[in-house]
Design brief:
The structure is a homodimer. Chain A is an alpha/beta fold. Chain A has one domain: Rossmann fold (3-Layer(aba) Sandwich). In chain A, about 40% of the residues lie in helices and about 25% in strands. In chain A, β6, α4 and β7 form a beta-alpha-beta unit. The longest helix of chain A has 26 residues. The interface between A and B is medium-sized, with 21 and 21 residues.
Chain lengths: ~250, ~250
Amino acid sequence: MNSLQFTAESPSNGVIERDFTVGEVPDVLLSPASGADRAPLVPMGHGGGAHKKHRAMAGRARLLVTGCGFHVAVIDAPGHGDRPRTARDEQEIAELRKAQAAGEPEGPIVVRYNARLAELAVPEYQATLDALQELPEIGADGPVGYVGIVMGTAIGVPLVAVEPRITAAVFGMMWPDARIEKAKQITIPIEFDMQWDNERIPREAGLALFDSFASKEKTLHANAGKHSVFPRFESDSSVRFLARHLGQAVTSPA
Amino acid sequence: MNSLQFTAESPSNGVIERDFTVGEVPDVLLSPASGADRAPLVPMGHGGGAHKKHRAMAGRARLLVTGCGFHVAVIDAPGHGDRPRTARDEQEIAELRKAQAAGEPEGPIVVRYNARLAELAVPEYQATLDALQELPEIGADGPVGYVGIVMGTAIGVPLVAVEPRITAAVFGMMWPDARIEKAKQITIPIEFDMQWDNERIPREAGLALFDSFASKEKTLHANAGKHSVFPRFESDSSVRFLARHLGQAVTSPA
């Protein structure tokens, strides 16, 4: 079993940010500077081309830490952030850029590439979860959620399908394809985000992925606008969703 | 111009409930027992077969009053609550019950009946708004929202299309048909609720009505489940939506 090594620590406005590794995988853990003895854990998967400290991740993570007192772990996906790219990563990314530049459908490339990354990432995320649950401020039997949009959904859906410790998840903005059979195995409460006028992921694709979850409680939030204008109030909404399901009060409502 | 007559008043847990009439139309106004000198107004339209004091209306209204300090006016639709039914009302209701009992599509009957009610109700709602804005605690230039699901949407969409005083609205759970041209004229922020597994209103109908609003900011909330299991947390969400757009802080978050 890979153990957790803290490599750096920096406090910032009520949040303690600790870089850590589990085996080869570099991650960051954001925790309340002062809080309960134990609090729920929310692992977070970043989007494609982003990394564990990307602005969008940091903003969402801060809302969860300061709003609910949660611990949030953002995990570098294979080939992302501080992790080396393989020749295969480089090739997939080159094909993706080429398709985007030519105005050709990027879906088939993203679906294939992210499915491969998910195969590698799911056991890594599980090992990270094992290691984090050894920490006294998290604990082995505390509530665990998940947040991951776009590539964070491509990895998160197969992760949640096999990981019984995760009991509520925020997903969104992904093609169904490689994920639909895994989504059908998922029964935990889901909040699913999509952009109604997404120019990259067709509306029907987003609706089909939402439809495929077997969850009795699932909520679709579809907002007017293109892929990149995802509204800030949906990050606030995901905090309330996780607070409701992981059993924590929202102390500083947005 | 019809003036407002208060006919009864009863305080209850921080909310003052005042029955009133404007012309022939009986309504109820719910206001904070103590609050700001002036506060935004939210007229609310009830569902078909319900009335101004129906449990679902009272619960939502209370959230808006106690959560945001809003004034909420719930208005009896023609043929509903304390208002007489016409022979035509009786006939439409009989046809609706017959179709429901036979398992035949109720959509065409509801669409036709509610379109007729909306023609009568829109000027009534506007007269009620005129009269309420004469009250010093509301005022002629204060923010105005709207909440109406199911029949409240059938009346609310044509109302909002012609009523520039309403600047944010919560709609949902209605067939598009008679409303789609009116919805295309609406540009204010919209929160739109639907049930993903609605056995009465087809999924495609709900999505089509949401799609037709011209609003730059519009959000679809679709929840797993049938028509009648509309989740309580969506009422909380609509309070936050109106607080955001009518410029009031949520003082007691749900």
